[in-house]
Structure formats: C-alpha cells, structure tokens
Amino acid sequence: MAEAMQSINLQAGVPISWYLVLSAVLFSLGVAGFLFRKSIITVFMCIELMLNAVNLSFVAFANQHKQVSGHIFTFFVMVVAAAEAAVGLAIILTVFKNRETLNIDEINSLKN
Amino acid sequence: MDFLFFFLFAFIAVACAVSVVVQKHPIASALSLVGVMASIAVLYLQLGAEFLAMAQIIVYAGAVMVLFIFVIMLLNAGAESRSGRSYAAQLMGPPLLVALMASLGFAIMRGFPGGGTVKFDSFQGGTAQNIGYALFTDYLLPFEVTSVLILVAILGAIVLARKEMD
Description:
By secondary structure, chain A is an all-alpha fold.
C-alpha cells in the first residue's frame, strides 16, 4: 500500500479505481441498511442508495473510456428509480392503510 | 486540487451513507440521503458529467426525496423500535460489513492497477448536447420504452393510492 501511494502522482489526477472503491463502499452500506433496518421506508431509501452507488461507477467508467454511453445508462437508471419510487411509495401507503404498520417484520401475510 | 475535492466529497458521501443506515428516525435518514446525493452530484461534475450532475440534483435530491419526505409526513412515521435481530447478528454484522467492503476494495484495486486517472475537465462529452444526441440516435428505442414505463408507473401509482370507491 505504501508503494502504491508513492506511485500516485498528485498532478496526474485521481485514479479511477478510487471512484470504484467509493462506489463499492456506498453499495455495501446500502446492502447493510437493506438487511438490518426494520422501517419499510428506510429500507426503500437504502435501495435508492444502492442505485446511486452503481450510477457512480457507470459514470466513472464512462470517463475512463471517454464515451457517453455510461451517462445514458445512468440516465435510464435515474428514470427507473423515479418510477420505482412513485409505485413503491404508493404500495407503502396502501400497506399502511390496510395493516397500520410500517414494520417489515409484521408484514408477513405471505409467510408460511 | 482534484484529490482535495474527491476526498472531501467522498468523505461526506460515506459519512451521510452511514448516517442513513444508523439513524433511528426516517426523516433523519432521508435528509442524510440528500447529502449523499448532493456529494455524488459533485463527483459527477468532477467526472465530466455535468448534465447528470444537474439531473441528479433535480430528480433525486428534488423530486424523489420530496416524495419520500411527503410519505413520511403523511404516515407520521416515528422512530423505529429497537432491532429485534439476534445477538449474534448484532455482534457479527459490522465486522462482516467491513470485511465485505475491504474485499471489494481489494478486488477493485487489484483489478484496475493501471486504470486511468480522472482530472477535472479531461472529459467534455457529458454536456446536454452530447447526451441528447446519443439519446435520440443510438438509444431511441430504450428512450421510447422508458416513456411507456413511466406512463405505466403513473397509472399504477394512481390505482394503488386512490381511495376505494364503492
């Protein structure tokens, strides 16, 4: 790691892999929140966090290959995320109207 | 200067992401998520994706998060109860998460040893003009399919959220 740090030229710019590591860290945090949280709204927000992390790596690769395709992918992911948020929050509203709870452990009608 | 901005906003993004996961109250999580999205938008600018940076601010930090906060307010969602996970899960969770992040980071650093570097202004293909040109020539069919998807999503949201009519 020390020689890796020395080989980095401060004038050359940030290595592309650091962006990918940041993206992986954000994605892992999103996975952790998805698994550990109990409020259905917070679980939904963690999904948005994971989508953002993946978008960051798409844009980093687009920068490396000097192509605009990665930006297009990110654009589509954003559109799908917006549509998903609208439908998902409507589902949350309906669930709350019928079950009076937001705890995912209590929404278990399909279990068993 | 590139390093300074990268580290500053990467640190803000990670700190806000941790805050999203550990905050008990959904409103606090939502506001932390806005911080993550804003700092990712700054990193987009550094990567030369100026159109996407603005779209990120407007669509995510603006529209989607307002929708979240609206639903949190509407449902009057309070702080969630203490986690009922088992003792082993609470004890092993954080170390295993750190191990997952470390192995992912190691794999990425090994996989891209000679990858390029990112300097501000080194890639200028992310303007609205370039994105619009690509969107309406090479990616026209996905674009049209996406518009149908949004139409279906709007109809689904209306059907799900409307009051029952007897």
